[in-house]
Protein 1
Amino acid sequence: MMKFSMKVSAIILTYNRAHMITEAIDSVLNQTFKDFELIVVDNYSSDNTESVVKSYSDKRIKYFKNQNNGFIGVNRNYGIEKSCGEYIAFLDDDDLWLPEKLERQVELLDSNDELGLVYADSYVIDSSGDLRKGTYFVSRKPVRGNAFGEMFQYNPIPLSTAIVRREVLDRVEGFNPGYKICQDYDLWLRIAERYPIDFVEQPLAKFRVHSGSIYQKHTALAYRENLQIMDYWLDRKNSVKRRLIAKIKQRKASLHLSLVCCHFRNHKRRKALGESINLIRLLPDSLGVVPSVMVSLSHYLTRR
């Protein structure tokens, strides 16, 4: 059995967030569980991020620079390569951990050797750090156990609450560097295909929603990457049970509908019509969502 020099490696990616990174780092250092290292991977920030991180005297903090060229998965994998913990935990530089986060999740992983991944609920905060109504689990029902099939409906796992066994990450070959936004959802599915997962129901992190987040700035790209993920699993029909094929196609239909609405909001009529055609091509799997598209199209066209 491989021996590890510490129990947990926490990995933070950052880029030009000197004004936020201290909160994220402090939330890791304030953990009740102490057997960890903190890997900070900086995408060559042009602000004073480096000096802010290096101002900490805690020897558990390790700072690296690595260019990701817009593909965050590259730097997540780089952080994993530089780490030496048995468990790997992830934190975005604009999110925060609550003090008992690692303690509660390490206890759960230690109690069940079969688990590949553990996650938790999360408070939702705004750019100022103020709590918004509800938590992450209010809008996305958590799943546990052999949850592979259920996870095609949505991504139930907030990245900043996830903690994964290193041997699991090695087996599934880490993050796919080809995704700019949805690399976490892609990884969770590949883990859930092979391993049971579990969660802590209480919020153990604070997930920040703000205009500067990559998902908020590139919503259409996120939908398209989700479609790529669905196509990946459809192409693996031999390893995906037949009953899941229809569920994946329904998910594709829902994503095309989301793109239709996204293009409407951005006044991109041609793209909206194109996605409507893609949706109709998924008949009969899209029967449940096509009427909504027709209503949206009719409403849009009558206003022109």
Protein 2
Amino acid sequence: MLIDTGFPGFDGRDAERIILAAKDAGIERLDYVLITHYHRDHVGGVVQLAQRIPIGQYLDHGANVEDSATAREGFAAYSKLWAGSNHRTLRPGNHISIGAVQLEVLASAGNVIGPTGPGKLASNPLCASESTPPEDPTENAQSVGILLTFAKFHFLDLGDLTKEKELALVCPHNPIPAVDLFLSSHHGLDVSNSRALVHAVHPTVAIMNNGPHKGGKPAAWEVIHDSPGLQDLWQLHYALDADKAHNTDEQKIANLNEGCKGNYLKASVEADGAFSVLNSRNHFSRTYKTNAGR
């Protein structure tokens, strides 16, 4: 399964990076491509990707809801790919099995899973300190969010879900178990990554999928960095608009400058739930024990 496809254009740059990652993993076909929402940095590369590798099924939240040219164009190009082929609209509570890997849909199309989610029903005391966020009419709030489970390992990816839907998901009760790896919501923007969400799921490790000038906001960085039990925060790029105190150690940052080569962070999971993160820029890696039972 591939989640999101990057930007269009750039001579197929993002599609080619995905193909290289697939070759490295020994993959010649994608059983699933999951599009979290229809902003161009998430859906834009799908047409170029489909020209390079077979895709079995397309998964998404349903029709575009955002009245913007880029969202309309992104959805139109994407929907032509699966017209008459294998396509599934996801809803909270849906499950997908890929061998020993289980995915549960926690959010989709502006809806979130109820208290019968994958974790024990627990009151979330962090909700009381959260102010009411504004309503978000964009595609971000429609994002498909998933919990991936492999043995004792849990990975949380909520796409670009914003605070209104984050709080709906974890307040007043949090259905999400403690997670081993958390992908920062919305590239590390502070309109996402609410304390009531991040601290409630107790990530062992977080990866911030920011750009040099996209995401990586100090307020969101602090929420993630200060999460109880967090052992490491990794970043895809050095956040050039933040100070050094709001960037992680350079050895855990894949790209330090603008005009970078697109170095990647690679997470690998063992059968017992232990996992490691590798920085392709400098080959620095670290291994962690699973968060199970915490």
Protein 3
Amino acid sequence: MTAPGLLDLVGVQDMPAFVLVSARVSGLFLAAPLWSMAGMPKSVRAAAAVLLSVILLPALGPAPRLPDDQLAMSVILASETLVGLAIGLTGAFLMHGVVLAGEVMSMQMGLSLGQALGSLPEGATVGVGQLLGYFALTIYLTFGGHLTLYQGLAASFAAIPPGQALVSLAGGREIADLAGTVFSVGIRAAAPVMVALLLANLALAILGKAVPQLNVMMLAFPVTISIGLVAFGAALPFLAQFLAAGVEGLPGQVGRTIGAFTAVPVR
């Protein structure tokens, strides 16, 4: 069966529109939580991207004809991919912020020493970061964060027709602002454990001054790890509420991201 016959079989009648739509969908799948995970098979990711492109295609109008110039066509496809990537980053940065919070907690508790002294591969995360990452992904899927990104992607085709994505300074600034949310989310998520460990370290410092014979260094590791784990467990319900609020705020963030890539009329 030839390629056109296969495309007709799945309902693709307009090849330029399918190429532009699939470019934007591929950008979403490159960054969106769950689909961008290293454990997700590439074949499954590609099949899901093609399926979503075919589903979105009938609701769109005719796409502009792709230019014959290879450079111009590359710029158009890159712009479409960047729009999908920006939409996916709205959810990805929220998840990465929680993983960053786990790394901060591990460092404050002293668990990161195992990563420094052990034989973990470069870039691997310790247990607290992984646990918080899976916890955040569970909350994200439970509250429909992935559906919010799909709806935002579908709405982006109404705001930005295929082939008319505008790569401007406003879009780059929006992505930079999104990147900054990683640190704010990480600090907020790690705040309960950080405060508990700060108080524990102050108490150990006072104890070391009061009892000079006491080996505070040897005592600090079990105390900080125990207090950190207890505070971590106690903070999980509040962290779940914080993540739920973040997922519920995704529609507004996706809307602002899409608006940054639309053409602003000149007055």
Protein 4
Amino acid sequence: MIEKEPTRRAAPSRVTRQMLLYFGGLIAVYVIAVIAFWNAEPKDGVFIFVMFAPTVGALLARFFGHGKIQFGRPGWWLLAGLIPAVAVLLFYSLGTLFGVDSLDPGTLVKALIASPLAIFTASLTAIGEEIGWRGFLWPTHREENSFLRTAVILVIVWWIYHIPLILFGWYGTISGIPAFTVAIIGFVLFIGVITDRARSLWPSVIAHGAWNGLVSTGFAVTTINGSQLQAFTGSNTWVGEFGWLAAFGSLIVGVAATIWHFRRSPFASNK
């Protein structure tokens, strides 16, 4: 199916102003957070501030640039937000068959039982990003651009957003950037689909929360003394959000969802 060209376009000057306000606010909060927590240990503070930087940008664009934040309503699409985490769980499990990671079945059972709480907790910070990414940036660009063009924009922005923290050595690993990039591509495609379908940012919050709370930790369980036991263990090359198992799971889900999205209805166009 060939995408139709968008039929409605916002005034270029207005969109430009919104983007300047959005990225100006995001970058300002990001830089202030990095400077403020440069010597702090652990780096929890910088992550919290950085994750809410997109929200600050979205609010500036909303109130000073007449932009719109698409909150929408929670619905059954919330359950679709769990699909990437489930897909990665399957890939982690397959990895054990090929010896690239190891599984502790008892810990996995505990992690799955505790997963609603883990997802909810991680979603409390993930919403800080999603208000900016899928609440403002995605729908704003979808008014102007096709699905794939908007996805490319989000992939580039989201990738750049993470890179400074990686280069500083605070988040992930430099060697894991290729796998992380593949994971981002798949994730942006999948969340783009469910955002278009739901007309809501809440499914993306669940997807992001499930990723941060389950995938990135190797489906870990927090013990009474505060330490974490991982259900899936192995090298960073394979396990975690900078590992290839998560990257493959994310990409397959994202591509499959996009193909389905284009074939099933005109949602993939701007209408």
